[in-house]
Amino acid sequence: MGVEIISDKKNLLLQRREVEFTASGKTTPSRKELKAELAKTLKANEKLIVIDLIDQRMGTNINTGKVKVYDNEEALKKISLSYKTKRDTGEKKKEGDAPVEKAEKPKTEAPKTEAPKTEAPKTEAPKTEAPKTEKK
Question: 44 is in which domain, residue-wise?
Fold first, then answer.
């Protein structure tokens, strides 16, 4: 895998370097492989590199991306978004952060057959109709 630096800007206020790169190879590199290769190319510590973005162009083996290389760990913890650092380090969620599993529904038993109910026959009152009168 080859990594080529497109731009490298120093951001003094945020204590980091903002780097754009292209990477080419047979397959799309994993984040770990990419961090290791970028650390060699940029001569930086892997722990201080945060991958912002990786894009792959359709139909090619060329990946473009953005990386932030922090000057020290304090700046990294203070400025960088926590989900990005966790994503890059491969940290898993804590046990307490795990999604809540749905409670299992109790198995429904086969419906019980009940003895047929005997109902008293309903008696209807005879309907009385008024005699019809014809109008002339």
Answer: 2-92
